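thread from #wetlab-drylab

HS: before we spend reagent money on co-crystallization trials with adenosine-5-diphosphoribose, can we at least see a predicted complex? here's what I'd submit
DV: go for it
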Amino acid sequence: MQRIVVFTGAGISAESGIRTFRDSGGLWEQYDIREVATPEAFESNPELVISFYNSRRKQVLDAQPNEAHKALARLEDKFSVQVITQNIDDLHERAGSTHVMHLHGEIRKVRSTRFPELVYLINGWEQKKEDLCEKGFPLRPHIVWFGEMVPYMDLAIEHISSADLLMIIGTSLEVWPSAGLIHYASDEIPKFYIDPKAHPVNKIPDLKLISQPAGIAVPELVDQLLQN
Ligand code: APR
């Protein structure tokens, strides 16, 4: 079975109503990364950080997968599909994708500040500051903050280097090390970049740029691949 790797970013969830980070009106225009998305921020002002992620969680729970997420789930009818996402939402899973790797964490989960292996699915939208893990330590959002290690990088590299086709969807490719992953794809395989602001990427000469919203271009590409 042919292996497809799909590397996604905030843009794939934009049409579900979840704001991206760096577009105009994006989240990082409204918030200072250093105040809400770093370990230092959590240490100095946990209330603000928790409330920031509570709002994000509320937004995700209210959102539904869009045509792009759904089309990627359909790809599994014919291909072995690995989604590698920078997104913290669970819209790929809710659309039906069964192999989803979250490089930057998962908004619906919290974990112990002391025992990181203690991870909990949170019921509803609200993490309360006084909630504790089963060993009595405070909880934090299960998010990879700026300055923290990105998990699963080795596994993600393995997936991308053995892919037969790569789709990059809705990402500015500005945040490293995640953005660097696409360079591990073989020179020989077809590569598509779907994003209204899709741009050439250094050292990936045959990248096919599709400058359209994901909700339009992803179902079209998926239909083509399923028909071939
Ligand atoms: N369809 C496809 N792409 C879209 C759409 C759409 N409808 N709308 C916007 N986009 C694109 C934008 O053109 C942009 O290239 O989505 C991209 C969003 O880029 P960013 O906001 O930088 O998001 P992302 O690349 O996912 O950011 C990576 O940065 O701060 C973080 O941790 C956060 O995971 C995130 C990481």
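DV: The radius of gyration is 18 Å.
HS: ok that's useful, forwarding to the group
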